[in-house]
């Protein structure tokens, strides 16, 4: 199989959201902290009728319908998620309901979990399967589904929720350049979920930022090594057209790209211009640790990277800013933003993605885009995803209502024997929703 990669995609996020500006006022923090400080516009959240299973049922059904894929044509289904609803039964098995009724139970794959990285692990599994001798000629599907919720406090505005489904196969308009890849994995306690009775993570916010940036540097280093070995020339930011980052909040994405510019400067790579060289020169002797602590370096590198950021990163930021951190779906929602914003100009372009999952696991990898053939074309993917339409038809909630929902969800987490309001008035037709969890913890869903 050649040019294996993503043939098509769809995205779903809850229609319910709060404005970050309203949240600032509600939380009593200084004006601008969430909107400018974190760089976020809105935060989407699941109400009591939605969860990671309903969202993934919705997005997989939609993917199959909109691209007219017969469920029998699917041979592998992989899910990435860090939202634990069951410690044994995978989300994938819930999704099998869609395929069983069409007579297809011959589908490999289960769930992958490690914080926000599970979706990337699932994606690599699926791509590897299509490239392998066990491939049976059918398509794979990768699902990333998460509801990111935090306890009250500074991390809460970095929540979000979404599910993404990607169809995997050969001759893809979004093809992997599998040789260009760098990973960094190590043991850290930056963000983890040791309390199985709570949906909320334990998070060391500052440490998680540093872990993210250190992982980025290391992945970039390995990525560049591999590129240089294979291509016989140095890699620099000018060798790719777009950079897509896992996006817990937009400010970290700005800092990440600035960090890559600083890396190019230190490596003396050709993409750094003279003005940038001059501005970054005072920092060339910093040790690694010092460089993560230096506010002046952060400021200078963000300043010199701004024009490149606007060209190569900004088009990827729409959905993460509007929806919030979607954990496993975050990176792919950023990529979906690029398809939405630039679909007619993307043929032939190289896109570099950086996936980060706390704990920690990270990979930088490369995609090459082609226009492709309908229905698997970049322009059709953008049409099907209908990002603008989905954003426009959302319903704003007041912060009080959001907090109330969070309280209710705290009670519902791990609970049994309840029925939901079954109120699906805000959901668009075709959306799955939770109706009941019975006395044996079995979950039931209906479709609007
Ligand atoms: N106007 C403009 N900017 C402001 C304002 C204001 N009124 N107030 C604060 N800011 C800026 C700060 O200067 C800071 O910017 P900087 O980083 O450029 O200095 C930014 O807003 C955030 O303010 P902090 O005081 O640093 O925020 P705090 O420490 O309260 O929380 C944090 C931020 C740590 C990111 C928190 O939201 C968190 O823990 N989030 C979850 C962890 C996370 O997402 N980590 C990322 C990687 S791991 C993962 O993906 C889960």
Automatic annotation (TrEMBL):
Signal peptide positions (record): none
Binding site for CoA: 208, 251, 255
Pfam families registered for this protein in UniProt: HMG_CoA_synt_C, HMG_CoA_synt_N
A biological process from GO: farnesyl diphosphate biosynthetic process, mevalonate pathway
Top-level taxonomic group: Eukaryota
Active site: 82 (proton donor/acceptor), 116 (acyl-thioester intermediate), 246 (proton donor/acceptor)
InterPro entries: HMG_CoA_synt_AS, HMG_CoA_synt_C_dom, HMG_CoA_synth_N, HMG_CoA_synthase_euk, Thiolase-like
Domain Hydroxymethylglutaryl-coenzyme A synthase C-terminal: from-to ranges: 174-448
UniProt pathway: Metabolic intermediate biosynthesis; (R)-mevalonate biosynthesis; (R)-mevalonate from acetyl-CoA: step 2/3
EC numbers for this chain: 2.3.3.10
Catalytic activity: acetoacetyl-CoA + acetyl-CoA + H2O = (3S)-3-hydroxy-3-methylglutaryl-CoA + CoA + H(+)
Keyword line: Lipid biosynthesis, Lipid metabolism, Steroid biosynthesis, Steroid metabolism, Sterol biosynthesis, Sterol metabolism, Transferase
Domain Hydroxymethylglutaryl-coenzyme A synthase N-terminal, first and last residues per copy: 1-173
GO molecular function, one term: hydroxymethylglutaryl-CoA synthase activity
CDD domains in the record: init_cond_enzymes (cd00827)
The keyword Protein biosynthesis is annotated on this UniProt entry: no
Protein family membership: Belongs to the thiolase-like superfamily. HMG-CoA synthase family.
Function: Catalyzes the condensation of acetyl-CoA with acetoacetyl-CoA to form HMG-CoA.
Protein's name in the database: Hydroxymethylglutaryl-CoA synthase
Species: Gossypium anomalum
């Amino acid at each position: 199989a050649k040019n294996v990669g993503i043939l098509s995609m769809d995205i779903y996020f809850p229609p319910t959201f709060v404005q970050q500006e309203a949240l600032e006022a509600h939380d009593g923090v200084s004006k601008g902290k969430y909107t400018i400080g974190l760089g976020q516009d809105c935060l989407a959240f699941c109400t009591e009728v939605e969860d990671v299973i309903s969202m993934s049922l919705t997005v997989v059904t939609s993917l199959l319908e909109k691209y007219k894929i017969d469920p029998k044509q699917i041979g592998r289904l992989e899910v990435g998620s860090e939202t634990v609803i069951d410690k044994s039964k995978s989300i994938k098995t819930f999704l099998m309901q869609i395929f069983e009724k069409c007579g297809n139970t011959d589908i490999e794959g289960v769930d992958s979990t490690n914080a926000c990285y599970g979706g990337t692990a699932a994606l690599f599994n699926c791509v590897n399967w299509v490239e392998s001798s066990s491939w049976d000629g059918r398509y794979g599907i990768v699902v990333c589904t998460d509801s990111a919720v935090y306890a009250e406090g500074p991390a809460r505005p970095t929540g979000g929720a979404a599910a993404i489904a990607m169809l995997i196969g050969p001759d893809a308009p979004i093809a992997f350049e599998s040789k260009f890849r760098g990973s960094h994995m190590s043991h850290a306690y930056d963000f983890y979920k040791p309390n199985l009775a709570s949906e909320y993570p334990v998070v060391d916010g500052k440490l998680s930022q540093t872990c993210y940036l250190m992982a980025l540097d290391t992945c970039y280093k390995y990525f560049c090594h591999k590129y240089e070995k294979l291509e016989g020339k140095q890699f620099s930011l000018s060798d790719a057209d777009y950079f897509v980052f896992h996006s817990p909040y937009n400010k970290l994405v700005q800092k990440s790209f600035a960090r890559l510019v600083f890396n190019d400067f230190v490596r003396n790579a050709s993409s750094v211009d003279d003005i940038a060289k001059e501005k970054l020169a005072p920092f060339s002797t910093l040790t690694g640790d010092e460089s993560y602590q230096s506010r002046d370096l952060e400021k200078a590198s963000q300043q010199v990277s701004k024009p490149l950021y606007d060209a190569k990163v900004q088009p990827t930021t729409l959905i993460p800013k509007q929806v919030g951190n979607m954990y496993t779906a975050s990176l792919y929602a950023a990529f979906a933003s690029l398809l939405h914003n630039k679909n007619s100009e993307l043929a032939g372009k190289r896109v570099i993605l950086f996936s980060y999952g706390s704990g920690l696991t990270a990979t930088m990898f490369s995609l090459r885009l082609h226009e492709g053939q309908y229905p698997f074309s970049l322009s059709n993917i953008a049409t099907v995803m209908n990002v603008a339409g989905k954003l426009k038809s959302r319903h704003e909630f007041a912060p009080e209502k959001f907090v109330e929902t969070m309280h209710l969800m705290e009670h519902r987490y791990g609970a049994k024997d309840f029925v939901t309001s079954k109120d699906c008035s805000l959901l668009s037709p075709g959306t799955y929703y939770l109706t009941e969890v019975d006395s044996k913890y079995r979950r039931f869903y209906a479709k609007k």
